[in-house]
Structures are given as C-alpha cells and as structure tokens.
Amino acid sequence: MKLTLIGTGYVGLVTGACFAEVGHQVMCVDNDAAKVKLLQSGGIPIYEPGLEELVKKNVAAGRLAFTTSTTEGVQKSDVIFIAVPTPPQPDGSVDLSFIERVARDIAAAMTTYKIVVDKSTVPVKTGEKVAETIKRYCPAKVEFDVVSNPEFLREGFAVGDLMKPDRIVIGVRSQRPVAAMKEIYTPFKAPIIVTDINSAELIKHAANSFLALKISYINAIANVCEAAGANVQEVAQGIGLDERIGRRFLNAGIGFGGSCFPKDLSAFIKIAGQIGYDFRLLKEVQRINADQMDWFVKKIIDTLWVLKDKKIGVLGLAFKQNTDDVRSSPAIDLCQRLQKEGATLRVHDPKAMDKTRSILKNVTYVDDMNAVADGCDALVVATEWDEFKKLDLERARKSLTHPIMFDGRNLFDRAEMERLGWIYKSVGR
Ligand code: UDX
Q1: Which DSSP state fits 341?
Q2: pLDDT tens across 409-428, in order?
Q3: How many CA atoms lie within 13 A of 311 on its CB side?
C-alpha cells in the first residue's frame, strides 16, 4: 500500500522503515529540512539498533523516501499517519499544537478520500478534534476518515517491537477504513483489535500508566525489602512467575524516565481530572517515582557524608539502555542532584554523551567506561546498559580512592561485589 508518515522521530521513522520492510511504499515527511537532507543522504538522526540497516535497505529498494512537503506526502498516499511530538506542558497537559498544525496541512492538501491515522500518543477525545479540524480546513470538502492507531514500541527495541508487535489497536468511527488498516498490518502477524476512537486513545495511556505503576510498585517493594533485609530481585522473580503478574517491568532502580512514562502519566491524570475522575492511584505512582530518586541521593550522601569536593564517576546518561535519548533521564537528574551537592563528575554513556553535552555542563565526559572511576571517591551506575556488566571491576576498584559503588540499576551481584572487596550499595537488596 502507499503510506505517508508525517514526523520522522522515534515513532515515525521506525514505523516508516518497518512498513517499507514488509513491502509498503512509504513516504516520510518532516518539516525539518536538515533532517530530511540527512535522511536522503543515508544518515540517521537517532540511535536505534537495526534502524540504519533497515532504512538503507528500503531506500535502496525504492520503497522508502523522504520529503519536506506535506502536500506531496498527502497526494502520493491514501493513508496518512501523524507521528509528531505531543510534548508536555508545565501544567501536566500535552501540547497538541503540532497535531493541530499537521491536521490543517493535511486538510489543505486533500483532494480525494484519505484515511488520516493518529499514531502519536494523545489524550482521549483528540481524534474528535482532529476530525473537526480536517473538516473545517479542507477547501476541497472531500470525504475522509480519522483513525487512532497508537504505537507501543519501546526505544532501544523499536525495530523488534514494531516487526513483532503484541497487538495492533485500530480505533475507528466508521467501518470504511477498517479493511485498509487491516491490510497494512496483515504482514506483521499480530492480533488486531478494532475499537472506537476514544477507547483506542485510552488504551495507550492506560497501558503506559500500568507499566509505570508496575515499576513504582517494585520500587516500593524494594524499600520494604531493604528495611527488612530481603532481596527485591528474588521477590520480583517469585511474584513474576505468576503469569497474572509477569516478571517484566519489575526491575527496581532509580525510577522511570524517558519521553513517555512521565509525560503520559501526567497527561492521563490531567485528562481524567478534566472529565471528572481524580486518579489518585496514578498520582501515587508519580510520587513513588520522585521519592525513589530522593532516596538514592540520600543513600549516596549517607555513605560519602559531604559531597562538596568529592569526585564521583557516573556510568550512564540515557534514560535507559540501547538508546541515545536523554529526555527526562533519571541518570541526568541524578547527575544534576550530585552537582548541586557540590560533587564533581566524570561521566560516560555508550551512546548518549553527544546529546548530553548541551544539558549537563561542567562534567568530564570520558570515552572509555573503564576510565570513569579514575581518581574518584565513588562510582555510580545510573543506566541499565548491558555493557556496564563488562566493566573492568579490578581496575575500577584500584583507581577509586575507596572502592564504593552505588548501583542504581542492580546490574551487579551483591555477594560477588563484596567478595571482590567493594563497598557495594544497590536497590532493595
Ligand atoms: C515506553 C513503553 O514501554 C512503550 O510501550 C511506549 O510505546 C513508550 O513508552 P520507553 O519509554 O521507550 O517505552 O521505555 P521503557 O523500556 O518502557 O522504559 C521506561 C523507563 O522505565 C526507563 O527509564 C527504564 O529504565 C524504566 N524501567 C523499565 C525501570 O525502571 N524498571 C523496569 O523494570 C522497566
């Protein structure tokens, strides 16, 4: 099928590449001319495992192209996906101005029936607004359908998640677009559920909030474990083997971050409040997440006492492993908290250092993870990168003034670290 995606961020670009990979003819539109130029010349603006190969292969096969022209994108395809940012606003609601702008641009360019699909995460009832906007701003007054088709990919695993999704959600207000939507997704061999638009929009917020709730739950359990002398990882395994609970998203740590969970929780609480429900459960999820960072910083201060003039090595800046994304990263929050206490920092991340330089100043960026601890008073693990498990522990232990590690992601085995002579502090064990 001929498909257009508007927005070439984490969702739009990866979705476009995966649609092309299964044989669709895909046009990706972005109003950032420099980004489009980079993509047209074979460059990739983000780090996402497997994406570069996928884009190159499909561009070479003639199935994937890039343009800055929404008009070209709309006229070349029958199905137009909106995948633009919906950033948070200070009051917790989301800024829908990019969606509104794109809806107007699509409307202006439409001369035949189109299916306009919202892939961006939006508050419930946004589809209704998009439909009203397109109707109002379409001079040709052609027929169209609005569809809600939320995306559930995780950054760092986006290609795999998209190629093998757990489910496809299609929210519609009439049956007319259903066959085309199903045809687009048939190659992905996933269960497809068709709902009304409001339910589809709610599914996304409800799913992300539930996952955030799971993380806050295990972080709360971690605090109880620590007070009781239990081990949160064993507890997570013990409860996670119950199929009704599941082991995934039960990793205790310094809290969740990223461009989705914090924003989606706030937006969901906000929209629920606006339509008359005070979502206290989710407010508590947010509070536990904030407390988790306070508690971790306190743990560092309790051990090192005064941080002023102390040198701390930090492993990890990205909000999680396998990504260069640092938006709402707990690791960066942690670094800033340590700086505020007067510590000087040596930091390393396998992919996110470039994106951090403009946000986190007055720190030493270290290219080699094994050199981060050099001359430091303690080493902190802030992101769950797998490769940190391969850290040269002996070198790190010897290069620290005292062999102290604060492992905010429970990457290392506690008994083994103690055997190796470390003063090792982790989360809930
Ligand atoms: C999330 C959802 O998983 C995805 O379905 C949705 O489409 C977008 O939001 P993402 O933000 O890319 O994806 O990352 P995710 O893997 O969910 O991790 C989010 C945060 O939770 C990270 O900061 C991560 O470190 C943290 N996390 C995750 C934990 O602290 N413990 C866990 O067990 C899992």
Answers
A1: T
A2: 999 999 999 999 999 999 99
A3: 15
CATH no. for 210-425: 3.40.50.720
CATH topology of domain 2-190: Rossmann fold (3.40.50)
Nearest atom in ligand 1 to 161's CA: 5
- Looking at the chain, how many residues does it have? 429
Domains of the chain, by residue range, sit at 2-190, 210-425
Residue to mutate, 119, 205, 215, ligand 1, most ligand atoms under 8 Å from C-beta: 215
Annotation says 260 is catalytic: yes
Q: At what angle do helices 126-137 and 197-228 cross, to 10 degrees?
A: 150
Are 428 and 221 within 8 A, CB to CB? yes
**315 in Cβ contact with 332 (< 8 Å):** no
pLDDT digits (tens, 9 = 90+) for 209-230: 999 999 999 999 999 999 999 9
- Ligand 1 touching residue 311 (CB < 6 A): no
- Nearest atom (ligand 1) to Cα of 212: 21
Closest CA to 340 of 365, 370, 363: 363
